[in-house]
Amino acid sequence: MESVSFPPLSRVAVCGGTHGNEMTGVYMVRHLQKEKIDKIGSVSVSTVLTNPRAVEICRRYVETDLNRCFTEALLNSPVTDSSPYELRRAQELNAQIGPKGSKEAMDLIIDIHNTTSNMGLCFIFYSIDWFTLHILKYLQSKMASVEVRAIQLDIPIAEAYSLESVGKHGFAIEAGPQPNGVVRADIHNMVKEAVDHIFSWLQEFNSGNTFEGGEVEAYTLEKSIDYPRNPVTGEITAAIHSQLQDNDFKLLQRGNPIFMSFSGETVKYDGEDLYPFFVNECAYYEKKIAFHLARKIKLTLPPIKVTG
């Protein structure tokens, strides 16, 4: 493939606390702010505690999920004092590090999240973006002891609902397992190492290094599976089976156990071979999602270099 040129990435936002009880990003942003780190080499760094009210009460959100408020429709909708806090906050953030789709938007937004699922270190992104995929490839080469994975959501940017979609380029870092309201040293250090490598990549790119092409694997969302429920009350009637628990990204095949009912019966999977992730994620109980299922694909990357 022919090489592709891009302008330097000179303005980067590191965000945490989009969900107020996901503590790795909260403490990482607070540390960067305490150290007054606003420039790393050629890159200007903005640190943003994105949902301070939710952080203060250590809850995922105050009124509605902030990380579902960044579609163009919601960002451009009229708001009043009675509008949900997170919707108003999304529009403030869009003005601060966007506006979404504009030339003034941040060159790169990194939004740090935690999951209670056993997902290790994951990038989550929307469009096929060469920057994101090259950074992923770079991290995979530098973090040999960690499985660094990518999840691609096939959603048009206008309809993309999460914070990182506000930037010219962006991705969420999803790291776990970590309980809500807790900071684990191993998870924090893993994310810190990843962020350090990201800024090293940015320095190399901005200084004129060419990054050779290659292949990376990614997981594309196919569907979501809900818990078995009582048809009258809507209450769940089963838990994730022990053979599925903590086995995110391990191939799920027809006949594999997925739920154990509270009366002791095993529920088996009856679909095509796919890869589960966000298995038993705490925050997804309210969304009626027991786990997502994905297909694994390979993406071919062109060489990239800085313009000029």
Descriptive account of the structure:
Helices cover 23% and strands 27% of the residues. With 308 residues, the protein is of the alpha/beta class. The protein has two domains: 4-218 and 299-306, Aminopeptidase (3-Layer(aba) Sandwich), CATH 3.40.630.10; 223-294, N-terminal domain of TfIIb (Single Sheet). It is globular. The two termini are 19 Å apart.
How do you describe this structure in short?
With 308 residues, the protein is of the alpha/beta class. The chain is built from six helices and 15 strands. A ten-stranded mixed sheet has the order 3-4-2-5-8-6-7-9-14-13.
Q: What general form does the structure show?
A: globular
Going by CATH, the homologous superfamily of the largest domain would be: Zn peptidases
| Order of neighbouring strands in the sheet with most strands | 3-4-2-5-8-6-7-9-14-13
Name the CATH architecture of the largest domain. 3-Layer(aba) Sandwich
CATH topology of the largest domain: Aminopeptidase
Total tally of structural domains: 2
DSSP helical segment count: 6
Quickly give the structural class. Answer: alpha/beta
Please give the CATH class of the largest domain.
Answer: Alpha Beta
- Round the Cα radius of gyration to an integer and report it: 20 Å
Distance between the termini: 19 Å
Number of strands: 15
Sheet of most strands: 10 strands, mixed
Low-confidence stretches: none
Average per-residue pLDDT, rounded, comes to 96
Order of helices and strands: EEHEEHHHEEHEEHEEEEEEE
The percent range for helix content is: 10-25%
What percentage of the residues does DSSP assign to strands (E)? 25-35%
Membrane topology: Peripheral membrane protein
Protein name: N-acyl-aromatic-L-amino acid amidohydrolase
Cofactor: Zn(2+)
Subcellular location: Apical cell membrane; Cytoplasm
